[in-house]
């Protein structure tokens, strides 16, 4: 269930969003009709969910009156789960390179409005926020909302144009390992499906066959990043 958090910045509902993935993850989404959300402290970026230097200096002052704050925050990180999306009006060559391998993979195209509608999990509320890219040595990260530290990244990741679906699974009282799966309306979420620009024709036919047999009817296209050169 999508929950509007007025502190988090969200682009307009008609903004295009993309999720690049391999075929196995895509099949898991279709078969389970559940979206995987990663535990926030399991991302490769070691700065994920941490504080910038100016923010940490501010927090150190608070520790005098609340010495358990940092330990409580570290525990909280284990219960914040995230699904990452890419905002762009067009396909991204960089995203194909980062998230797919061996000239195979898929990209889901949706909109922020459709993402909101597709979040039907009732156990925990889901929030959506746009990632801010900052200098961690100079700029401040607000911490008056539990999700703010997970919506800031270093400027070197700016090419990701990331939008995040976030949730706090603390109410579920579960041991979160790598992440959790939440119920989604796949028919609503996927507006269009793009197939890797360098994939073979058999791969496209396979994807179409699988999608059809599973009863989904969204539009499928081969990426046009490798279309014929006109000269």
Describe the structure.
- With 231 residues, the chain is of the alpha+beta class.
- The protein has one domain.
- It has helices at 23-32, 53-62, 69-77, 93-99, 112-118, 186-189, 201-213; strands at 16-21, 34-39, 80-87, 106-111, 127-130, 132-134, 152-154, 162-168, 179-183, 192-195, 219-222.
- The strands form two sheets. Strands 1, 2, 3, 4, 5, 8, 9, 10 and 11 form a nine-stranded mixed β-sheet that branches.
- The mean pLDDT is 91.
* Percent range for β-strand residues: 15-25%
The class by helix and strand makeup works out as alpha+beta
Elements, N to C (H/E): EHEHHEHEHEEEEEHEHE
Distance between the termini: 51 Å
The quaternary organization reads as: single chain
Tally of domains: 1
The unreliable regions are none
Average pLDDT rating: 91
What general form does the structure show? globular
Number of helices: 7
What radius of gyration results from the CA coordinates?
Answer: 19 Å
Number of strands: 11
Work out the helicity level.
25-40%
Sheet bearing the most strands, described?
9 strands, mixed
């Amino acid at each position: 269930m999508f929950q509007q958090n007025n502190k988090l910045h969200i682009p307009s509902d008609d903004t295009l969003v993309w999720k690049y993935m391999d075929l196995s993850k895509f099949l898991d989404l279709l078969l389970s009709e559940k979206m995987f959300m990663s535990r926030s402290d399991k991302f490769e970026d070691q700065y994920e969910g941490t504080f910038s230097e100016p923010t940490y200096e501010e927090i150190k002052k608070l520790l005098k009156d609340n010495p358990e704050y940092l330990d409580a925050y570290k525990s909280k990180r284990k219960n914040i789960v995230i699904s990452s999306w890419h905002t762009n009006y067009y396909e991204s060559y960089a995203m194909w390179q980062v998230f797919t391998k061996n000239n195979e993979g898929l990209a889901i195209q949706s909109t922020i409005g459709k993402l909101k509608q597709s979040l039907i999990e009732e156990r925990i509320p889901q929030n959506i926020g746009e990632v801010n890219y900052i200098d961690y040595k100079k700029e401040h990260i607000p911490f008056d909302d539990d999700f703010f530290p997970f919506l800031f990244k270093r400027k070197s990741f700016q090419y990701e144009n990331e939008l995040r679906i976030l949730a706090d699974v603390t109410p579920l009282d579960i041991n979160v390992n790598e992440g959790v799966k939440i119920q989604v309306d796949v028919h609503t979420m996927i507006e269009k499906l793009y197939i890797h620009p360098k994939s073979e024709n058999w791969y496209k036919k396979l994807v179409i066959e699988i999608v059809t047999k599973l009863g989904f009817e969204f539009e499928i296209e081969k990426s046009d990043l490798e279309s014929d050169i006109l000269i």
